Every structure is written in C-alpha cells, then in structure tokens.
C-alpha cells in the first residue's frame, strides 16, 4: 500500500507539474503571438476641430481592441496619452521636417525629444520618415539622409532592434502594375527608391506603402468592377500565371512585391501603412461600400496575398475619424468613427 500510495502521489505530482508547464508555455506563446496575430492598426489623423481628446482616443483604441496606431507627427499630447497603453505606434516625420533632419545633430535631437523621452512606456514600432514623397518633389533628396540620421540616432539609444526606420510610399511610384507580376518601379522612381530599398534591407526594416483600391477603381471604373475593389468578387478575376486574384488589394500589393523582386529585394516585407474607403463625397463613396471594404479587408489580411500566401499583412486602416479640416469631398469622410466616438460601421478589430 505504501508503495502504491507513493506512486500515486508521484503520478499526481507529475501531472500537476506537466499541467503547470503547459499552462505557462501557453501563456508565453499567447504573449509572443498576440502582436503577430494583431495585423490591424488604425491611422489617427487630427485634421479636425471637433475631435475627442487624445486620452479619449487612446481609450477608444483600447475598448475596440485596436493594438496599433499610426500618427503623422510627434504630437506631445498624443504621445503622453499613449504612455502605458501598450499600443504599438508608427510615428511619422512630417514631410516639411525632412530637410532639417539631413543634419545629424538635428536628427539626434528629434529622436531624443520625440522617441527616447517616451520609449520607456510608449511602444514605438516604426518611424515613418516622410509620407508619399515623390521623386520630383523638392524634399525627395532629403528622405534617405533623414532616414539614415534617424536610424543612427535610434541605434545610439540602443533601440534599433525595437524600432525600425522606413518611409511610406504610394503606388504611383509603379510604372507598371498590371498584371501584378509585371509590377515594376517607373524609370523616374527607380533612382529615388532603389537606395531606400537597400537601406531597408540592410537594417531589417519593412517598406511602408499606402494602398488604396478605392483610387484605382475610381480612376478606371470602366475596366475595374466594383466587386473586385470591395473583396466581393465570387471568383478569380485576374489570372496571372500561377497566381489568381479575387480582389484589387492583393493585386496592388503583389505588384509592389513584384517591383521589389525586380529591384533585387525579394525578401523585403511590405507593411500597408494606409488603406481605406470614403463614406461620402465622391464616386462609389457610400457608407455601405465603405463598411463592406473595411470589414472584408480586416478579415482578408490574415491570409496574405497570392505571392505571400499565409503571411499576414500588417495593415493600418485609414482613418480613425472623419476630419472636417481636410479638403472638402472624400478626404473628410474616411473615418471609422464619427467625432463623437460613435462607430460608422460594425467592425471587429481584435
């Protein structure tokens, strides 16, 4: 009996320990994969005179289980509100600041004031140095030097593994995008983007890209079906060799991936730093279409594109609120929420 009792006790103890280890392992894995599973973020623009306070906005993100936020400049109130929130942040360097940050000491000061000062309890993910800068723009030649200086300042603060430096482009840099496998950067864009691509590869940073099926559709409605832009096509619309495309978002993103492959960067990852659909103010801009687009995009990004199947697409929806100080028309109506914090659509983010 004594031997049986001790064996029973030992067996019970082993079971308890195994269960405890499994529970701990599960907890660790869940913590490790939480941000990976969270593919959706939202862009928080502030071009309105009727928007909630930053603290209310952070609370709204948390209530809706939105784990990532893109902001366009280092606004003090926003950064203070983000302290301790656990929200991962894409911090923008405004285009009008690029030229000044080609000076290394100015970049160091910018990083100290806007990143290091908050990094103990604000989770910076990327620094987006410039937004939709085009090769012919006056500040185009400032983008890469500013990126290098910001990166060096981040590295000096020993934050280079945690915070990656990039820039946000748009799809107008593509000279060809159809079919997606023919995607390539235009001749005028190549000299601008290729050195940036090399910087991103060297430093393990993704390329940020603003991808808008809405603008592709409204620019060519005679050739693009609305259902293709809204993720509601019942089957493959574009067959491109081995890849079949059922939606325009995938086609646009894969044309960028094809362009990166041709530029010698087949391993570079793309983060979709903006994508959205307006609810009024222009062609096909209705609440029904916008709600359909956002709902289907949220569900789709977990799957990846045909060229990157199974690889979740980190995507930032544009935008958190309607912004009444933007240009009249569609630009004022990309919000997921009204300024009174009421949702325009029934969406599940987490």
From TrEMBL:
InterPro entries: GH (IPR017853), Glyco_hydro_17 (IPR000490), Glyco_hydro_17_plant (IPR044965). It comes from the Eukaryota. It catalyses: Hydrolysis of (1->3)-beta-D-glucosidic linkages in (1->3)-beta-D-glucans. GO terms for molecular function: glucan endo-1,3-beta-D-glucosidase activity. SUPFAM superfamilies: (Trans)glycosidases. The keyword Hydrolase applies. Residues 1-37 form the signal peptide. Its EC number is 3.2.1.39. GO terms for biological process: carbohydrate metabolic process. Keywords: Glycosidase, Hydrolase, Signal. The keyword Signal applies. Pfam families: Glyco_hydro_17. Belongs to the glycosyl hydrolase 17 family. This is glucan endo-1,3-beta-D-glucosidase. It comes from Populus tomentosa. The lineage of its organism: Eukaryota, Viridiplantae, Streptophyta, Embryophyta, Tracheophyta. The gene is GH-3.
């Amino acid at each position: 009996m004594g031997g049986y009792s001790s064996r029973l006790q030992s067996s019970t103890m082993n079971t308890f320990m195994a269960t405890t280890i499994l529970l701990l392992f599960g907890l660790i894995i869940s913590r490790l994969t939480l941000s990976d599973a969270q593919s959706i973020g939202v862009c928080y623009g502030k071009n309105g005179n009727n928007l909630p306070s930053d603290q209310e906005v952070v609370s709204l993100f948390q209530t809706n289980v939105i784990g990532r936020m893109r902001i366009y400049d280092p606004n003090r109130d926003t950064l203070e509100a983000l302290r301790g929130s656990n929200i991962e942040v894409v911090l923008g360097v405004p285009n009008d600041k690029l030229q000044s940050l080609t000076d290394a000491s100015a970049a160091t000061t910018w990083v100290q004031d806007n990143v290091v000062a908050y990094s103990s309890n604000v989770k910076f993910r990327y620094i987006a140095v410039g937004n939709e800068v085009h090769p012919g723009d006056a500040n185009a030649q400032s983008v890469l030097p500013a990126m290098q200086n910001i990166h060096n300042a981040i590295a000096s603060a020993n934050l280079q593994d945690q915070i990656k430096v990039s820039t946000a482009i748009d799809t107008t840099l593509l000279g060809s995008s159809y079919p997606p496998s023919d995607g390539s950067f235009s001749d005028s864009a190549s000299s601008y983007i290729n050195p940036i691509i090399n910087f991103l590869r060297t430093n393990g940073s993704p390329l940020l890209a603003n991808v808008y099926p809405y603008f592709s559709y409204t620019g060519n409605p005679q050739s693009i079906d609305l259902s293709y832009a809204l993720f509601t096509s019942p089957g493959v619309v574009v067959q491109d060799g081995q890849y079949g495309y059922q939606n325009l978002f995938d086609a646009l993103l894969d044309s960028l991936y094809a362009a990166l492959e041709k530029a010698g960067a087949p391993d570079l990852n793309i983060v979709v730093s903006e994508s959205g659909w307006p609810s009024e103010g222009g062609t096909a801009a209705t609440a029904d279409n916008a709600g359909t687009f956002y709902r289907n995009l949220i569900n789709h990004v977990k799957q990846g594109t045909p060229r990157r199947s199974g690889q979740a697409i980190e995507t930032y929806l544009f935008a958190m609120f309607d912004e009444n100080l933007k240009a009249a028309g569609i630009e004022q109506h990309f919000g997921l929420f009204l300024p009174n914090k009421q949702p325009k659509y029934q969406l599940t983010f987490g």
